[in-house]
Amino acid sequence: RKGLDFVHLNILELSQHYKDESFSTVIDKGTFDTFDVYDEENVFARKAADACFHSLTTDGYIITATCRPFQRRIECFNHLPVKVVEICEIGKEPNDKTPDRIYIVCLQKVSEKDTIEKELRKTIVEFDGSYRVA
Q: Cβ(36)–Cβ(28) under 8 Å?
């Protein structure tokens, strides 16, 4: 797509390849979940959150998909001036053996420290396609 670049690299090495405030959006699928498996204290997840944060322009977005509780994903960013814009909970087919829910968490970089719970919007999308705001 014109004007849209997809980049694949080690998130912990982001600053070696790009200067601060290079991106308007960072999309993650699985990186933070992988860190959770090996790092119960969130050390690497917080480093990845730092890298995402510094790479974003002011008012930029971090969108992350997780099979962990969404609160666990937000914890990775608690030390940064971000706000949660929306959490989307995605259901699954009844006989599906994957985790019960998948969450899409959208955070926004802000210029001053904001509370994580402020302005939270939660939506739920069921497997049948029904959609509701919680």
A: no
**What's the rounded Cα separation, in Å, for the pair 70 and 87?**
8
Task: Break the chain down into helix, strand, coil percent, rounded to 5.
Answer: 25, 30, 45
CA pair distance 54, 21, nearest whole angstrom: 6
Are the CB atoms for 66 and 99 separated by under 8 Å?
A: no
What is the bridge-based pairing of β-strands 23-29 and 82-90?
Answer: unpaired
Query: Mean pLDDT for each 10-residue chunk of the chain (134 residues)?
Result: 77 85 89 83 88 91 90 87 87 74 89 53 59 60
The reported pLDDT for the residue numbered 9 is: 81
